[in-house]
Amino acid sequence: MNKENKTALLIIDMINTFDFIYGDSLAKKAEKITEPILSLRKSFRDKNWPVIYINDHYNLWQADFEKIMDYCRNERSRTIIDRIGPGEEDFFLIKPKHSAFYGTALHTLLQQLGVEKLILTGVAGNICVLFTANDAYMREYELSIPSDCIASNTDHDDEYALMMMVDVLGADTRASTEIDLTELGA
Of 84, 170, 161, 86, which is closest to residue 126 (Cα–Cα)? Predict the structure, then answer.
């Protein structure tokens, strides 16, 4: 890991069954955000900066991303999971509830990595991403939540979540293509 960097990329709940009310809609929206997330992930990997997957456990309770991906693969999710699944160089944590910080080792990991800024991506923007952003804000992390890298069940839910993240949490919600990674280093 590049110790000069102070930023980590979090990918939240993109390994997903999408097997719930509005799951079909959210899966379609997740497909649209996959490419911008992959672009950010590539940039982070190229710089040897931390990429951290935070995912629901689906009652498997094992931080084994292969098992969780196998469990989640279905007609709605297969394409997304096959494209965005973590690699061996990435961190992978499971979470019991909506926030990536609640009941996880995320804060300890971020401290050990010297991280001060988080780029949050994933689903659902108005639930797990928003709750993670709230908890990150309370822990005094600087936040970037690219508007093209989160998806909620509806566009209205995305707009509301982004508005809250800007107005209440002071997050930068510029699109991923507008993020200057040279500004994110040491």
Answer: 161
